[in-house]
Q: What sequence folds into this?
């Protein structure tokens, strides 16, 4: 089944695919079957739906993070050392070992780990592992040597070198982390290729066939082109460049065409107007409830924002502008108000996250065809923190999905992977429940802002494609559209929210080619 | 007519081209003509030969230079001002006007021109015009203002600000030129697109259908990709990156595939081991005859050269190494000797220019499959200077084309445009005459180093294609090869050398498509 271009449900039980990888016809019960179908399989009660589209992710970061060592599941120093030893053996060609997720409290260690304890697992391969909270790093002796750390190295302002017996002990806190990180080698093109392939594998295995890439750098772009040139690019990437200059350098005087059979296009530019809520970097209209006097900070002056947008919009680039705090959202809305007359033809202004919005500003999202690009799982991850940061009164316009629709904005969903899991079924389920994976809170958090199950599906398919100018190519199945679809083990319109979350993707097809097939057909035979 | 893959002459009088742009068949007298030929024209005695291949050029520089103002033909300040006024009117959207070629001696001015005299032609558009010898530049008032030049600006070491009535007068000599040049804006992507299109137009109009691009930067590469993506890339570019890092960033772990229907490939890396003869930057084994004690300078130590080659060759990149002086050529030959066992499979080592070679080193070019990539017109442009710089004794291995062949090296020809004209017929004629456009010197300069007319043709076609790993795709006409050919107004195997030089290209075809047709069919009706 699929939505059509207008969002109406269409059921089918077969697809005829042309040699160009596009849908020729959706077969319905009673239709004559072609003599030699291009794609045919006994579905045994499985469901075929369009490939999911993530409106906001970070492709290369997902790959790099997935290739790094993950210690978040380790429960003791010994377990961590075993995991490190295994990782070192499996990655023997790496110049440095990197990763993170450790927490000495979880280990019950009562102190930080030491460089010697890391040396025991890594030998002399420089190694740097960041603590679960990102506020400290654990270096081995080789890493400290490479970074030129000696007994006389001083802790910088805002940071601390943990000392053991009068010498740097291996752990570097906050600003001291940079002492090691400056010695980390830049990824090579081979590293980048490997990270891309890993990210693509993850996304396809989760049923994501197309994704916006938010903040494509030159090196990211070069990687996508190498993959495209070599025929390794199998997913679709809607690329938003990391700032204006990158877009101009790559694409010149306007968006690139769709390349590699509609698999890659740089069509827009990502800008940031503020930071995030957790670090109190989001720019608010009034101070943080839990930090009096601090309202966060803007990244750009109004003039800088207008100037950046003008530089790109005059060449036809779309803008996707990060705004988390209510003041940042107001700034972007003001900028769009100011520029929308000049750049009115099909701009599809995007505001990314739009997490905390002053209710007075909510109706402004309905003007100028603004797209609210939001991430359902952020709501369940952040809700406790948001309550602390903002207090109850300022939550009326927070994660306000339904209000966005009610005001006439176009709502599109994504995951913001790798900040959250790229699994779109988690986002889909959160979208109509406002509950987390444990079903908390009961009844949903501010459930009046939940959207319908069908609306959440739209936001992860046809509308996410629209936001990236791809709606005539992918996002739903219909004659002439690219044959991007997934085979899943349950009916997503009937599954309970928790069942929908644990949907298993059995096969993924892009452009009429099977690009993923689950090895052990788990989920077969049903629950 | 064409050479075949082995260099034997093949005559034909028709070409059948497939829908894929490749040659299906060469038709000979008496062959049955197809009922509906793909390409057919009454040639009226014209000649069809394969598109010419330039083994060494600089595509973007050609375009930028062609778009800049050229004052070299002006004979007075007034003529120059008229030319500047015309150029300013035709280029009214440019932020700066740039160009050069002026010479106040030719103008009979008896002094340098002034900023005020330039203002009279340009108004307040910043303008910077370099003197014919490259050793001085002429700025207008707007350019001096943009560069922050005031009455108190000091001349830097090695440079001089020409003063008029106690103020900077507009002319900046040698190191002082940088005071203005630092204010020149970087070309925009639009500027780069325009420069590429101009270069391509020039090359196709001169019958060059494929060219090596020596020293492709990231921005150059992005331009070629934009042109390819938009279907504007019509010539074939064998790209050699500007150093190792650019190749790794662009192509990653090995050469790119041939892209856009065999029109673009980054297959190699350009390195420099010395400068040029004119500025006495070429690295010689013994001091310059006209500058005792000065032997020029190496650009790289032996270790740096070996290290750079290894970094790229281990990933399969080809190397094209600039070496002009005999010491520089020796350094490159030493490096190839050292590395050829490690990187022996199809490396196709290229030495670019190979202008001055110690006769003792000449036989070494026959080893390891080395390609001598030389530019015939450099020989006629440089011969007087080379005699002054080197003295008669050291000319035995200078511009030694025939000796290269005799020693078993592969000889390929190019123009080094825009240093010389990209017209390949000038190079072809020089190749077998060792004479310049005026037929000087009588009998040719060191005529024992001339090659045959057919050999020079090979060097501009099949062998130039071989040097860029394109010999199975272009460089000659045969079934399965890309249909790249030109229609010219005379028979190049029968024309006198001066007639060959003035060959007119009437049409140029690349991949079976006509990409250039001369508007007024000059040359028709014969000379």
A:
């Amino acid at each position: 089944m699929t939505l059509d271009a207008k969002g109406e449900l269409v059921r089918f039980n077969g697809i005829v695919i042309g040699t160009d990888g596009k849908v020729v016809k959706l077969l319905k019960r009673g239709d004559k079957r072609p003599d030699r179908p291009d794609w045919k399989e006994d579905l045994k009660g499985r469901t075929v739906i369009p490939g999911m589209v993530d409106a906001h992710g970070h492709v290369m970061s997902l790959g790099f993070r997935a290739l790094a060592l993950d210690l978040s599941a380790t429960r003791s120093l010994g377990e961590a050392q075993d995991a490190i030893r295994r990782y070192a053996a499996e990655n023997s060609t790496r110049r440095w070992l990197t990763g993170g997720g450790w927490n000495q409290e979880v280990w019950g260690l009562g102190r930080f780990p030491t460089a010697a304890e890391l040396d025991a697992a890594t030998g002399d391969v420089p190694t740097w592992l960041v603590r679960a909270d990102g506020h400290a790093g654990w270096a081995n002796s080789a890493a400290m040597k490479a970074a030129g750390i000696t007994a006389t190295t001083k802790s910088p302002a805002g940071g601390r070198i943990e000392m053991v017996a009068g010498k740097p002990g291996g752990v570097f806190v906050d600003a001291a982390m940079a002492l090691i990180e400056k010695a980390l080698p830049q990824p090579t093109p081979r590293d980048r290729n490997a990270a891309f392939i890993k990210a693509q594998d993850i996304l396809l295995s989760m049923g994501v066939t197309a994704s916006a890439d938010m903040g494509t750098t030159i090196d990211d772009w070069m990687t996508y082109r190498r993959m495209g040139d070599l025929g390794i690019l199998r997913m679709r990437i809607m690329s938003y460049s990391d700032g204006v200059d990158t877009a101009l350098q790559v694409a010149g005087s306007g968006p690139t065409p769709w390349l590699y059979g509609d698999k890659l296009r740089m069509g827009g530019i990502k800008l940031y107007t503020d930071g995030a809520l957790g670090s109190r970097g989001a720019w608010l209209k009034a101070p943080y409830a839990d930090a009096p006097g601090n309202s966060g900070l803007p990244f750009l002056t109004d003039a800088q924002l207008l100037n950046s947008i003008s530089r790109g919009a005059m060449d036809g680039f779309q803008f996707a502008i990060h705004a988390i705090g209510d003041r940042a959202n107001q700034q972007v809305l003001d900028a769009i108000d100011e520029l929308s007359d000049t750049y009115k033809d099909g701009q599809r202004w995007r505001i990314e996250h739009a997490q905390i919005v002053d209710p007075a500003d909510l109706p402004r999202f309905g003007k100028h065809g603004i797209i609210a690009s939001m991430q359902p799982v952020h709501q369940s991850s952040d809700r406790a923190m948001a309550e602390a940061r903002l207090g109850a009164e300022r939550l009326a316009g927070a994660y306000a999905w339904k209000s966005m629709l009610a005001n006439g904005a176009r709502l599109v969903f994504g995951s913001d992977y790798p900040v959250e899991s790229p699994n779109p079924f988690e986002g889909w389920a959160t979208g109509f429940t406002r509950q987390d994976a444990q079903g908390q809170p009961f009844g949903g958090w501010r459930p009046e802002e939940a959207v319908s199950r069908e609306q959440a599906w739209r936001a992860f398919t046809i509308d996410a494609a629209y936001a990236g100018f791809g709606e005539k190519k992918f996002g739903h199945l219909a004659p002439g559209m690219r044959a991007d679809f997934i085979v899943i083990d349950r009916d997503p319109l009937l599954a309970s929210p928790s069942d929908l979350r644990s949907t298993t993707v059995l096969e993924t097809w892009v452009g009429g080619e099977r690009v993923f097939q689950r090895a052990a057909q788990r989920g077969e035979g049903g629950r």
